[in-house]
Queue: 2 jobs
Job 1
Amino acid sequence: MFKRSLSHAFGAAMLALGCGHAAAVRAEAVVVSSSAPGFIQGQLVADGQALRLPDGANATLLFANGRLLRLRGPYDGVPGDMTDSAVSARAGPGDDRFMQSDLGAARAMGNPLDAALERALTIDPSVSGVQCVKAGSPPALRRPAEPGLDRLTLQDMVSGERAAVSWADDGSAPWPQALPLADGSDIGALRPDGTPVGTLHVRMVGAAGGAALAVGMASAGCAGQIAAAMAALRDAMVPLDLFLSADRGGPAYRPGEDIRLLVQTDRDAHLYCYLRNARAQLIPIFPAGAAMSARVAGNVPLSLSGDRMPLRAGEGPADLEVRCIAASRNLDDEMPGRAAAFRPLSEEAAVQLDRAVSRLRETEVASAQLFLKVR
C-alpha cells in the first residue's frame, strides 16, 4: 500500500520541535490522532498496553512528559516501553514509521496544547457527563448555546446548595464560590423554572497543565473535553491521514465475489475514491453521484462494498486498483467524474486526476492506493 501524505513535512516539524531524549517515557499516553479503526481520539493508552496498527494506518500518541510519538503500521508492540533511542534504532535511515518530538520545546512557537486545554476546561454546565477540573483552580463556565438557558442555577446534588450563574457579555462566568468542588461532586444545572438540564460529575486532576494534564484528563474519563483538546493539537501538528484496506484482511478475491473495502480518515475531510478495472478504465466509486456529499467524518470507518456499487471481481483473473484521495477542503469542482459515479472516465479524465492532485499546493491532501487480485 502506498500513501501520499505530509509525513515528511510532519517529520521535519517534529524534529524542529526537538528530539533526542535518552530516558524511558512515562507509560500512559493519550491518542492525539489515528486513522486506524478501533482507536478513538482522546483514548487512554494504559501502562503496558499493546497496540496493533494495520499496514498503512497511523496513530500519534502524547505522553505525560510532553513526548509525541507517531506510529505507522504495520506496528505491534507496547509504545510505552520504547525509549527515544529505541525509536531511532527501529526506524533506521529513511524509515518514518516512528517519529517523535518534545511538545515542551514548542513553547517558543506557542504551544497549541495549552490553549486547547484551556478551552476544553471551560465548562458548559448544560452538558451532562464527566467533566475534569484542575485541582485548586475553579473552572470557568461557558454560556450554553441552547436558547432559554441565559438564566441558570447550579445545585450541589448532595448538600442541596444552589447558586445562580451570571453571564458576562462574552458568555463567560466564574464558578460560583457558594458551590465548592471536590473530586466526585455531582452538580445539577436547573432552568429558571427548576427543571433539570443536566448533571456534571466532577473529576479533579492534579497535574498543573500541559501533557501531564491531558493524560490525567483521559485517565479520569473526561472523554468530551480531552477529545476536543486532542483535535486542536492534531490540527496544529499532525498531517491529514487516510487509511484504506480490504475489510476482510486481504486483497485477494475469487471471480464474481463482492469486494468490500474500509476507508477511514483521522479527521473530517472530503473523500474521493476511484477504481481502475481490468480494462485499465478509471471509475469514480465515491461519492456515489453529484447528490452525495464527499464530506466524511473523522475516526469513523466507511465501508465501500460491492452490494451497493460496482466493486465486484470479474469472471476471470484480473489486477484491480483502488485509489482514494482525502482533502481538507471541498474539491468537487476540481476532481474528474464528480457527477458520473460508476461510469468509466475517458483517458483524458484519468490524466486530469493526476494533474488535479499535483496542483493542490495550498490544500492538505492524503492519498492511499490498494491493489486487488482476482484469482
Job 2
Amino acid sequence: MSAHKIPSMKLLAGFEAAARHGNFSRAADELHISQSAVSHQVQQLEEQLRQPLFRRLGRGVELNVAGEVLLQTVQRSMTVLRSGLGQIATYLDPGLVVLVCPDHIAHGWLQGRLAALQAELPQLCLLVSTDLSARFVDEVDVDISISERPLLQAGLSEQRWLADEWVVVANAALATALAALPAGQHALHAGLLCLEQSLSAPETATLFLQQLAPFRKLAIYDDARLLLDAVLRGRGIACLPRLLAAEALADGRLQSLPDYPRSAVTAWWISGMLQPARAAIVSQVYEWLLAQAEQYSSGA
C-alpha cells in the first residue's frame, strides 16, 4: 500500500475499537457487527499496511509497537472528526441565530440580557460573533448585524438601533471619593486608564487633551473589555463607550462622573433580512433586540 493512501474509516474504526477493548467480540458488540467482521477489518488493515498490529493472546488481542503508534494517531484523528461533526450539528440546529455585534456592545449591553432572551425563546441557540468583517447578512452565515452605519445591502431591513457616547466613569467607591472633592483636585487622587484608540479618535481626543490632561496615565489597553475590568477593580477613572459600561452603570458598580463632558452621541444600526426571514426565530430575535433597545433608550 502507498504510504500516502489512507485506509478507510471503516477499517480504522474497527481497529480502534478492537485495540481499546483488547477483544474482537466486545469491539463487535460496540460496533453492532459480527466478531468475524471485526477480525476481517483488522486483517484487511494489516494487509494494506503490510504490518501486523496485534499479538493474539488466547481469546484476546494486544497491540504491538506499530499498533500502539497507529492507535494514538487514529484516536487523535477521531477526536478531531467528532469535534467537527459536532460543530456541523450546531449549525444545523433549527434554533440557531447568528448575530454579528461589536465586542463592546456584546460584552457590556447584550450579555446581561441573554438570560431573559433565552427564557423567552427556550429553543434559541444564539451564535454571537464579534468578527465585523463577516457582518454582511446572507441568511447562511449571518442573520442579524449590528454596525455603525447602514450596510446598504439589497433585501435588508435596516433601522437606527442604539445611541452610544463616551462617558468618564469610576467604580462606586472611587466615584464617591471624588464627589467629595473639587474637580480640580481629582487628578491628585486618581489615575487615568485609557483605551488606545480613544486617545486619537475624533470624538474623544479633545477630552484627553483638555479635561483629562492633568491625570497621570496608569495603563493603556487595546481591548475595551480589559479596560472595563480595570475600572471595575478601582484602578482609576476611564473614558468608556456607554454601551460597554451599561450593565455596570445600571447595577451601580460604575458611576458616571458628572464633572466631565460626554462625547457627541453616535448611532448604531441593526440589519436583518426583510420578511420572511430564514426562520421565525430570526425575526423573533430581531424584534426582541429592537424592543430591548427602545426600553434601554427610554430608561437611559
